[in-house]
Amino acid sequence: MEHRENFKSRIGFIMTSAGCAIGLGNVWRFPFITGQYGGAAFVLFYLVFLVILGLPIMVMEFTVGRASGKSAAKSFHALEPAGTKWHIHGYIATIGNYVLMMFYTTVAGWMFSYIFKSARGEFTSLTPDEIENVFNTMLLNPKEMVFWMGIVVLVGFVICLRGLEKGVEKASTVIMTSLLCLMLVLVVRSLTLEGASKGIAFYLKPDFSKMTSHGLGEVIFAAMGQSFFTLSIGIGSLAIFGSYIGKERALTGEAVSIIALDTFVALMAGFIIFPAVFSVPGVAPDAGPGLVYITLPHVFNIAFAHLPVLGYLFSGLFYVLLLLAALTSTISMHEIATAFIHENYRLSRQHAAIVVTVICIVL
Ligand code: PFF
């Protein structure tokens, strides 16, 4: 029988699973939909869904992985009663994973591009309209987007190729530790900007009347969707990590640690973004997906007008942070897709990783 690799340490397992959960959903999507749906009241709903739905579903996914000892590709084959069709979920999960990879690696590519743009100071002398133009021009430039997307996919490939322990576990642990340190620096800087308190109030003081303009149902649905997306539940990504948890560990305990880390990072992202946005008069936090690409470069310009070098550094580091978060999730998507091919078609891990990389770039 082929030897199945395992995590080297428990902290490595937690960092890898948390790395899968922590991603663009925390640092890009969470702040922008919180901004769109009115701030603290939305956050409250989000937290409730994390506990009442996210936690039990995460425990269930881990259970499926641990009980079968396999990834989503084969877990239901191993567990289902004879003659039932639960294994179809393995295919749905895999399709979902590829669809996610298609958009995720593209948005992660934008982060790469923005690290260079902002660290070079490309935004400093631009008006808000011109900044918006930079973003829209990038979206109209397939060569630039494919280039950066390709780099993101290749990074995932190289890490997966090195295997679970030496590649995925090691990279996730290093990236997650850097991400947490970087976040703390940026939170401190953002909270000490002048006018930051208005952003904190928007973020922490629930105002339910703000929800009425969207309708309560829409806000609740968005909060639920965000809680699922941020925990990576539903497409078998956690099942694969569950398959590596030893029988001596309590699954609920592991799930609580991962959700706590994920929530910490999302909330910290808000503490970086909202005080910064509100430190600039006349800027609103409801720009949607463009919040970190259009609103923030403008905010950084004004907030750091008297200290441009610090501004380059802050905004460059900010996009590095977004990219690091995106990379750990991309690695886990690569891992799921690689495991699917490796387990189903008896290709070696290396060959499976190559196939996934090619499919992903083509898609
Ligand atoms: N949870 C990730 C995020 O918040 O960005 C998104 C994600 C990653 C969803 C991996 C699903 C997945 F398998």
**Average pLDDT number:** 87
In terms of structural class, how would the helical and strand content be classed?
mainly alpha
Tally of individual helices: 15
> What is the number of strand segments?
0
> Which shape, going by the Cα principal axes?
globular
Bound chemical compounds? 4-fluoro-L-phenylalanine
- The low-confidence parts are none
Strand content: under 5%
What's the end-to-end separation, in Å? 34 Å
Oligomer: single chain
Give, in order, the helices and strands: HHHHHHHHHHHHHHH
Largest beta-sheet characterization? none
Question: What Rg is obtained from the alpha carbons, in whole angstroms?
Answer: 21 Å
What proportion of the residues is helical, as a percent range?
Answer: over 70%
Can you tell me about this structure?
This protein has 363 residues and is mainly α. It has helices at 10-21, 24-36, 40-68, 72-79, 88-119, 128-139, 142-161, 164-191, 196-204, 216-231, 237-242, 251-278, 291-303, 308-345, 349-362. Helix 3 (40-68) packs parallel to helix 10 (216-231) and helix 5 crosses helix 7 (142-161). The two termini are 34 Å apart. The model has no long low-confidence stretch (mean pLDDT 87). The structure holds 4-fluoro-L-phenylalanine.
Outline the fold blueprint.
Blueprint: H1 10-21, H2 24-36, H3 40-68, H4 72-79, H5 88-119, H6 128-139, H7 142-161, H8 164-191, H9 196-204, H10 216-231, H11 237-242, H12 251-278, H13 291-303, H14 308-345, H15 349-362
The site of 4-fluoro-L-phenylalanine has 15 residues, from helix 1, helix 2, helix 10 and helix 14.
